[in-house]
Amino acid sequence: MAKIFLLEGIVAFWHERNVLYVISDETKRLSLSNPASRCLLLLLQHHGQVIERDYFFQQVWTNNGAQVTNNTFYQNISLLRRAFKELGLNEDLIVTVPRVGIRLEASLQVQELDVEPVATEVDAKPERERTMPLPAPSRGMTTVWWVLTAMLSCLFASVVTWRLEFDTRLTRYVPLADAHGCHWFANQDVIHFNKHQQFIKENALECENYPWVYLTVYPNFPRISALTCREQYTRWGNNECVTHYYIRGPRDAAI
């Protein structure tokens, strides 16, 4: 037998399942959290009496190995008031007594009933309607499938990671100049672009076929790289680019 509380003859509270529902329409139901359900049970067990806040703390939280703040306590009481209102009960039936505690109005009609638990949909389903399980795949096929899936996942992740990292790096490059038929871009993580400008003046690249140039120059680092592309680089485009490396002499290596 299950024990429920009938409130005002219209709403049932089933503590064991933490639920409130309208008895005339069980589709109108609200699930309560464990603490909110325990709070409502205490109020119904002490119907019409003021329950001190510390008693709530002890019975609802401390005895169940939890700690609670005043804010959490009043949030649960607020949840109960909203549940009452949504199911057609007066939310003012739950009364706060300042600096003392909470009580359930004595005018609230409460009946305690023992009912037979309703069979769940799964239990009531006829045996002949149950779906027969499909034959399990062989162990060898399962292993092959997982190996292929892992290989494809790794390949896809590698391609995406390479494209994202490369594109992220290039998006930080800033337009520098249009010279010698090329559109020059420079890495922006330097103090100034003197070495970039010097390189543009002193070097001629194949701007006719690869007019988009992404130039990387760092102070005190002898190598210069120039990525030349047929079109402006885009993340998912069919980019056709060539990388050129230049080594500066010792005198040019420092700014």
From TrEMBL:
Keywords: DNA-binding, Membrane, Transmembrane, Transmembrane helix. InterPro entries: OmpR/PhoB-type_DNA-bd, Sig_transdc_resp-reg_C-effctor, WH-like_DNA-bd_sf. GO terms for biological process: phosphorelay signal transduction system; regulation of DNA-templated transcription. One of its GO terms (molecular function) is DNA binding. The chain crosses the membrane at residues 143-162. It comes from Enterobacter lignolyticus (strain SCF1). This is Transcriptional regulator, CadC. The lineage of its organism: Bacteria, Pseudomonadati, Pseudomonadota, Gammaproteobacteria, Enterobacterales. Gene3D superfamilies: Winged helix-like DNA-binding domain superfamily/Winged helix DNA-binding domain. Residues 2-106 form the OmpR/PhoB-type domain. SMART domains: Trans_reg_C. Pfam families: Trans_reg_C. It comes from the Bacteria. Residues 2-106 bind DNA. SUPFAM superfamilies: C-terminal effector domain of the bipartite response regulators.
